[in-house]
């Protein structure tokens, strides 16, 4: 009875049995499901292809790359670093590629040692504009660097202060990354956000580190130089700072190479500007005087002894040393120097030698003359002495232009004879000119 009632409730379509309608609905559902699965497969394949295609990365010519697989560097040896070109890695989160600009040189200005300037002072100023200088240096806002008061090892007099001096300086650091792996492991950098360049992120992240190490290197180097050396030296001190900075970076294995260090500006404190200008002027005058004195000494030595004056002077100075024992070779070298003597000294030596020869020859002539007179002197000594006296008087009087002999009258006590020879000093020169 129940089955008959149910059959009565199901509508019967005319001309079609109920079983055929159920088969058509199942076929439609099955076809719909089949098409859905095909579309889903296509979508999955497309997603897989897109996922895999997203692993392609381009490394620029000035970059090198590291591949991180689950946070660790992938590869062994040289394969750990990827060169420029198109690279494929597993997409995130499996692999992550980190591109590091190794060929790009970065510049970092260091102005922490410069004095404080107001924004208005940073603008171009006209020559007539005078900037008001503070009376004292404020160490809270003014940067400065310390230099030595005297050269290392130099003795300082009691009246001379050995305090260290202050200078203001500006620097320019140029660096690059030469070891990407060490740089990535030992140097902290922030993650690049969407739209940010990793090079900009690196420069921003390592700026505090480089600034701190650079300032430490400058302080360590500058304390070894005087303020005069610091102001006048534009090459030696930057090389010293570069060496110290590179040693510090290598010690922490930063992977950063220092390309150059430049001292762009350096000056003494503004508060003592007048005193420094006066000191510089005095130093320049002193150097000029010393240079003139050295030039005069060299000219005098050259005029006196010729080109070998310095060598001969050193050789003569060595002779005054009591402990010095001259060898035969050294004696020959000195004789050679004496033979090369020139200038006024040579003239003096030649004159001295001529005078010596004249004295010797005159002594020989006098000796021969006296040897000839000796027999006559032994026979008649008074006559010989009188003859010699007369010859001397004749020799003396023969060279006189004017002779006046005064003899007093007879009968006076004590005869007196006065001979005036050339009472007028101009008579002899006039006769010589004639």
Task: Report on the architecture of this protein.
The structure is a single chain. This protein has 434 residues and is of the alpha+beta class. Among the domains are: 53-101; 106-117 and 137-152 and 161-268, Band 7 domain (Tetrahydropterin Synthase, Chain A). It is 50% helix and 15% strand. It contains 13 helices and twelve strands. Strands 2, 3, 4 and 6 form a four-stranded antiparallel β-sheet that branches. Strands 7, 8, 9 and 10 form a four-stranded antiparallel β-sheet that branches. Strands 1-5 form a two-stranded antiparallel ribbon. A hairpin with a 2-residue loop joins strand 2 and strand 3. Helix 5 crosses helix 7 (236-251). Mean pLDDT is 76; it is low at 1-11, 155-161 and 320-329.
Which fold name fills CATH's third level, the topology of the domain at 106-117 and 137-152 and 161-268? Tetrahydropterin Synthase, Chain A
Let me know the average pLDDT.
76
Uncertain stretches of 5 or more adjacent residues:
1-11, 155-161, 320-329
H/E series: HHEEEEEEEHEEHHHHEHHHHHEEH
Task: Please outline the major beta sheet.
Answer: 4 strands, antiparallel
The assigned structural class equals alpha+beta
Number of helices: 13
Q: What characteristic shape results from the CA principal axes?
A: rod-shaped
Radius of gyration: 54 Å
Number of strands: 12
CA(first)-CA(last) distance: 189 Å
Helix content: 40-55%
| CATH class bucket of the domain at 106-117 and 137-152 and 161-268 | Alpha Beta
**Could you give me the name of the CATH homologous superfamily of the domain at 106-117 and 137-152 and 161-268?**
Band 7 domain
- Proportion of strand residues: 15-25%
Question: Can you tell me the CATH architecture of the domain at 106-117 and 137-152 and 161-268?
Answer: 2-Layer Sandwich
């Amino acid at each position: 009875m129940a089955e008959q009632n149910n059959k009565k409730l199901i509508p019967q379509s005319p001309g079609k049995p109920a079983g055929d309608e159920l088969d058509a609905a199942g076929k439609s559902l099955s076809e719909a499901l089949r098409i859905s699965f095909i579309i889903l497969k296509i979508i999955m394949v497309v997603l897989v292809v897109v996922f895999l295609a997203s692993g392609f990365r381009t490394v620029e010519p000035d970059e090198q790359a590291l591949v991180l697989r689950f946070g660790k560097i992938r590869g062994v040896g040289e394969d750990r670093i990827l060169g420029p070109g198109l690279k494929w890695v597993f997409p995130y989160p499996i692999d992550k590629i980190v591109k590091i600009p190794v060929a790009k040189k970065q510049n970092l200005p260091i102005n922490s040692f410069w004095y404080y300037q107001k924004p208005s002072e940073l603008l171009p100023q006209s020559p007539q504009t005078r900037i008001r200088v503070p009376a004292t240096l404020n160490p809270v806002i003014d940067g400065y660097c310390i230099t030595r008061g005297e050269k290392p090892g130099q003795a300082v007099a009691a009246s001379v202060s050995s305090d260290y001096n202050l200078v203001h300086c500006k620097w320019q650091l140029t660096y690059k990354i030469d070891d990407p792996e060490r740089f990535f492991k030992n140097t902290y950098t922030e993650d690049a956000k969407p739209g940010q360049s990793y090079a900009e992120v690196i420069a921003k992240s390592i700026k505090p580190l480089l600034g701190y190490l650079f300032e430490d290197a400058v302080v360590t180097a500058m304390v070894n130089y005087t303020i005069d050396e610091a102001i006048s030296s534009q090459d030696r001190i930057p090389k010293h700072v570069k060496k110290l900075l590179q040693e510090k970076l290598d010690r922490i294995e930063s992977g950063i190479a220092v390309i150059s260090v430049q001292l762009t500006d350096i000056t003494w404190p503004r508060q003592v500007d007048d005193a420094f200008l006066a000191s510089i002027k005095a130093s320049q005058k002193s150097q000029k005087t010393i240079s003139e004195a050295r030039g005069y000494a060299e000219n005098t030595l050259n005029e006196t002894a010729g080109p070998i004056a310095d060598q001969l002077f050193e050789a003569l100075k060595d002779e005054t040393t009591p402990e010095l024992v001259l060898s035969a070779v050294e004696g020959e070298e000195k004789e050679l120097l004496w033979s090369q003597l020139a200038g006024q000294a040579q003239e003096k030596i030649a004159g001295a030698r001529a005078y010596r020869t004249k004295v010797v020859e005159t002594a020989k002539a006098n000796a021969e003359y006296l040897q000839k007179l000796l027999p006559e002197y032994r026979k008649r000594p008074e006559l010989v002495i009188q003859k010699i006296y007369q010859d001397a008087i004749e020799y003396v009087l023969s060279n006189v232009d004017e002779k006046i002999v005064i003899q007093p009258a007879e009968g006076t006590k004590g005869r007196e004879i006065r001979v005036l020879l050339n009472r007028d000093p101009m008579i002899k020169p006039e006769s010589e000119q004639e």
